[in-house]
Amino acid sequence: MRSFAGTVAAGVLIRRVALATSVAFGTFLGVVPLGAHAADTRPDPLKVVASFSILADMVEQVGGSQVQVHSLVGRDADAHVFNPTPKDTRELAQADLVVINGLGFEGWLERLVKASGFKGPVVVASEGIEALDGEEDHDRDHHEHHGHHNDHDNRHLHDHGPIDPHAWQSLRNAKVYVANIRDALIEARPQAREELTARAASYIVEIEALDQQLTAALAVIPENKRKALISHDAFGYLAHDYGIEFLPVQGWSTGREASASDVASLIRQVRDGKVQAYFIENMSDARVLQRIADETGARSGGSLYSDALSAKGTEADTYLKMYQVNGRRLIEALQ
User: Does the keyword Aminoacyl-tRNA synthetase apply (predicted)?
Assistant: First the structure.
């Protein structure tokens, strides 16, 4: 005869075996035990559409697992001559949030939004930066930029106007982009505030560290040697931050080809200004640039990344890696 304690112990054992068997059998049949959904309470990622690859990366860096990002203009692609596809229209229609650069960069966006029927929030990542203005004048001997507050009204969706839209080419502006993206994601997903705030803060620390490194490295290069020939005028903010003079073959938009007089003027400027290096871009036609280099003796400094990241797994597949590559090549060529 079993003791009372032995009977209780045996009963507990039987119940444990029975429970384990029922759970296993229920799982086999597709029946989920109580409490099994506890780990699946996290909401689906926010569907975010970014206008081009650099913004898409910023959203991913801040959003992490909270976001699923689609970039309208892909890697190594030119946003200035972008033609949306039916897939882009579908992605936009299903989005929870759209992130754009603003400053007139996405001239095609208004038509695409209308075609998709998207009614959700559109975040202008450049909101609050000090935009640079100037003129698309290829005969100028140097570029003079003045601070201009960004008002982001509707005309910016139609043309570049007098404002340089490539504001992400300043690491200091990038911190503003990140803050705007963070705030928009928190508004869309307030329960993830702590995670999104921490990720944005960590990202900004990395941006600031890179800015400090480049400032120190470029400061030792004599000012009269900080000159370079480039494909199109996409580096005005970088030039402004680090005291570099860029001579562009094209203006702000790659959609306009350089004329014969533009090329002749640049050849004179390169010779007069003793520009020793030229750079091509990952999404530009380098033939005109090569012609100028052949006639002036300027040497290649390699590729710079302006409006698009490189393919995943390559040297410039994130915003920070892109900026590191650009900075390193400029320093090596201008020394």
Answer: no
41 within domain boundaries? no
* Helix or strand (DSSP H, E) at 280: strand 277-281
Strands (E), 20-65: 46-52
pLDDT of residue 271: 73
State the pLDDT at residue 277.
81
Contact between 288 and 82 under an 8 Å Cβ cutoff? The reply is no
Does residue 200 share a domain with residue 65?
yes
The number of distinct structural domains making up the chain is 3
* Phi–psi pair at 257, nearest 5 degrees: -85, 150
What local confidence, expressed as pLDDT, does residue 78 receive?
87
The CATH number of whichever domain residue 82 belongs to comes to 3.40.50.1980
Domain around 296? 220-334
Question: β-strand 227-232 against 277-281: which pairing, if any?
Answer: parallel
Task: Give me the pLDDT at residue 221, please.
Answer: 95
User: Please, which residues have CB within 8 angstroms of residue 177's CB and are 6 or more apart in sequence?
Assistant: 55, 58, 125, 126, 129, 167, 168
pLDDT at residue 161, as a whole number: 55
Residue 38, in any domain of the structure: no
- Contact status, residue 49 vs residue 91, Cβ threshold 8 Å: yes
- CB contact set of 192 (below 8 Å; sequence gap of 6+): 66, 185, 186
The SS3 call for residue 145 is coil
Residues in the chain with pLDDT values less than 50: 1-38, 135-160, 251-255, 283
